[in-house]
Specification:
Shape: elongated
Structural class: mainly alpha
Number of strands: 0
Order of helices and strands: HHHHHHHHHH
Largest sheet: none
């Protein structure tokens, strides 16, 4: 009985860690998904506005999906890596200053906590406690002087999650066109695609509210409106250009 309980604890612990890790990267998943669905849907809408064939829509859609997805994931990776490298650079400087000019650094700590309202013996006690440990000292300087905090998120994982979410959600506007190309589709293809994509926008909008901690309705409406505007612009641009080129 105890063995079963212990195994459940282990599996539950693993599940909990997985959920926590997913929540850590939920922001990247949401914004990758938003960008993927909006940009791919805009390509589809523009192609429909230009009266292009389904096979052309599929080619343009998948080319845009993977090219933009890769570009966005690389941008996410480089941005996160640059931020981490910048943090490490300033942290190294702070360690050097703590080791080589400790009195000046101690005075900076004193000034920081004086501005927080500490004074007299209490202020000196706080300063002595902080400066008695080099790592704690540098951590205070990074947060309270430079306003920099280290993230534990992997730049590679951030880029990977962005790419995966971009592809998965960005596929939604193309699903029915692929189905139509392979098996045929009886209904109105573009209207059905709009409906299916709207469902994707709603799901992403709900997930977005967990990141921004805002109203669920607001998150859904923002995502739907953004997608609708992008699709409308693309559709009418495609329609106008088709009229100019073929007219």
């Amino acid at each position: 009985m105890n063995q079963v309980h212990d195994e459940n604890k282990i599996h539950g612990g693993n599940s909990g860690r997985f959920i926590n890790r997913f929540q850590d990267y939920l922001g990247e998943f949401v914004y990758g998904g938003i960008d993927g669905s909006v940009t791919t849907f805009a390509v589809v809408a523009g192609a429909v506005g230009a009266s292009l064939d389904s096979s052309i829509i599929i080619i343009l859609g998948f080319a845009n999906l993977f090219a933009d997805g890769f570009s966005m994931s690389v941008g996410s990776y480089l941005s996160a890596k640059s931020e981490r490298d910048n943090f490490k650079k300033h942290q190294k400087i702070e360690y050097w200053e703590v080791e080589n000019i400790p009195e000046a650094e101690k005075e900076e700590v004193r000034e920081i906590y004086r501005q927080k309202g500490f004074e007299g013996d209490l202020l000196e006690q706080v300063v002595n406690v902080i400066t008695s440990d080099k790592d704690r000292w540098v951590d205070v300087m990074m947060k309270d002087e430079l306003y920099m905090m280290e993230t534990n998120k992997s730049p590679f994982a951030m880029g990977a999650v962005t790419f995966v979410s971009f592809i998965l959600v960005g596929l939604i506007p193309l699903v029915l066109y692929v189905w139509d190309y392979l098996f045929g589709f009886a209904g109105n293809l573009f209207v059905s695609t709009c409906f299916l994509t709207s469902l994707g926008f709603i799901v992403i909008g709900i997930l977005k509210t967990y990141v921004t901690e805002t109203s669920t309705i607001k998150g859904i409406l923002e995502t739907l409106i953004l997608g609708a505007i992008a699709a409308a612009v693309a559709y009418y641009v495609g329609d106008i250009l088709e009229g100019i080129i073929t007219g």
